[in-house]
Amino acid sequence: MTSAAPSWVLHFDLDQFIAAVEILRRPELAGKPVIVGGRGDPTERAVVSTASYEARAFGVGSGMPLRIAARKIPDAVILPVDAEAYTAASEEVMETLRAQPGATVQVLGWDEAFIGIRTDDPETYAQQVRAAVLDRTGLHASIGIGDTLVRAKVATGFGKPRGVFRLTAANWLDVMGDRPTIDLWGVGTKVSKRLAGLGIGTVAELAVAPDAPLVAEFGPKMGPWYGSLGRGDGASVVDDTPWIARGRSRETTYQHDLTDRGEIEAAARELLGHALDDIAGEGRPVVGLGLKVRYAPFTTKTFTRKIAPTSDRGAVLAEAEALIAKIDPDRPVRLLGMRAEMAMPDDAREGHTPTRGGW
DNA sequence: TCTGGGGTCCTAGGACCC
DNA sequence: TCTGGGGTCCTAGGACCC
Question: Which 98-137 positions of A have CB less than 7 A from strand C?
Fold first, then answer.
């Protein structure tokens, strides 16, 4: 590898990560339909976190209500979410990535990371990364290779499972052009429908769409951003600056809707208490609060409030009462969430590529 | 079928100031 | 009496991702 070698973006993604961790410690589950979600009780309000490939064959996938998943696969193995185990496994994987020669690693979540490298042979490098992770952790992964973050991320889908796929400006439209816009990373059901309303159904159509109608529909920033997404363009630099959280939140869906005013208020205070516990050691003052309430069956309201920066727990809780008072006393509550926003260090305010807006 | 929990960023509109 | 233009801050809501 020389300094003259071209630079590449690799997108690393573990295969069926959560299910894979469970199967690693219970090898007898290999080959069975395994579903991980909630507390592992399909009679509760919860959703599927990850399904094994065997379970996916029955049409079960992430985000599906656990109740429905259990109905689709009566003899599935349903396990509770064990966040600590996944965090530990994830850290070992990310350490392995950082140990690769010349790698700049940007972690995206438990099971994903971008890797920036310079090499003349990204395929061979990617296979070495896969082998290193498998060797050290027993976990299989797929890798997308790209000349931008967007292309690398999208490429991974074509490599799964246990594979490698390259997507660059040279083959982007050949591979993606005829696909619907919802296949793009950052385009969901709402935006793909609004694009369709503009006569844009495919990636190729989005790639050549003029800015003006996109700006009119989505605003000055998001409009042009969707256009560049259609072309696969965007940032190509992997940024390993440590992430600094903007805030912490805690939310709960109650198994039975809450109707008692005192119970609702106590529940909200408890959630904020947990969020404050989470940030207690950070030494960053709280500068804002948020409250989310879902009234049964499915209407969500949010309230936010800026407060004078303070690290005093009692003061924060007192400020939260103004938000809690906004909860409608006449409607049953299905979900409550409380969020505490923290002051950002001055040197972190600018410059770091945000998770969503930056590519 | 009936929808978790934890995040981030963008937009619109109102309040307020000069 | 009827009313500018620009700017910033705050709140609520929307959308997406893992």
Answer: 108-112
